[in-house]
Amino acid sequence: MDSQDIALVKRFPLWLPRIVLARAFQRLMLEVAGTLNKSALEQEIEGGVIKTKLYNKAYNLYPALVDIVFITWDDKHLEQIKEITGISLHKLEDREALIREMRRLQDKYKELTVEQEKGDGVSFAEVIISTEIVLDLSISRNTLLYEFEYYMKAASEKVRQLQKTVG
Description:
By secondary structure, the chain is mainly alpha-helical. It has two domains: 1-37; 38-166, no CATH class. It contains seven helices and no strands. The chain has helices at residues 18-36, 40-47, 49-71, 75-85, 95-112, 124-135, 145-166.
């Protein structure tokens, strides 16, 4: 998109009329612009709320859960861990999944807090990570842009509902 080279819109080397490529490029640019326009989700990102939520989850909640697993295996704590994380711990090896999830969240936090080189704006990685946090799910990095738009709309709607209940 930065190069403004319309020929790069194609996924495979097939000859297409330039007008078809130009239309495809314009649709792609509109889709990207629509996805990245300021929304309630981006306002929350700029406000730092998502960064705080992710930090607390990655560096406070999940490490505490890992510590609980090391200390106790009683049914009450195992049920709480399953409720919070969705990870069911039955064997000793299952706690590795919890540790991997904790590290994944910490990596997401680090990626989200990397200084932006261009100053203003929100990076696409921040939008993806923030959307995952708001929807509390993991989005495949192979998701197409028009598919990601549905996630964005769902996340924006969830943020709007949260704002109505709080404010």
